[in-house]
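Chain A, query sequence.
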Amino acid sequence: MTEKLSINSQKIGEQFEIIFVKGILDAHSAPDLEKFVAETIAQGNIYLLFNLKELDYISSAGLGVFMAFVEDLRNRGGDIKFAELTEKIYSIFELLGFHLIFDIVPTNDQAIELFNQKKLRTNE
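Chain A, predicted structure.
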């Protein structure tokens, strides 16, 4: 991983993974996150929660990582959700319409509850 991006995860249950992304997610660091997500999905995790509380910056390349995986996950019955976005990061998501594509909630617990309720978005 690059010096400016830190990625950690916590497994919750059989198919749930909380992925904590910290630092700067740009064209240089996006491949690190993409590899991490691909490996996570390969391990059978189809419910991915990204906690972005400590994400300082995201570029279009960083946003593209999430778009690269969402269709496949939804086709498998899974999904991507986001929690604890800072106001700055949320405003970028909102500007680009990500709040219409993904569930963005204040806490990890709220996102996990949506997963548990099977409140999943579809590709339609």
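The longest helix spans residues 60-75. Helices lie at 30-42, 60-75, 87-95, 98-101, 108-116.
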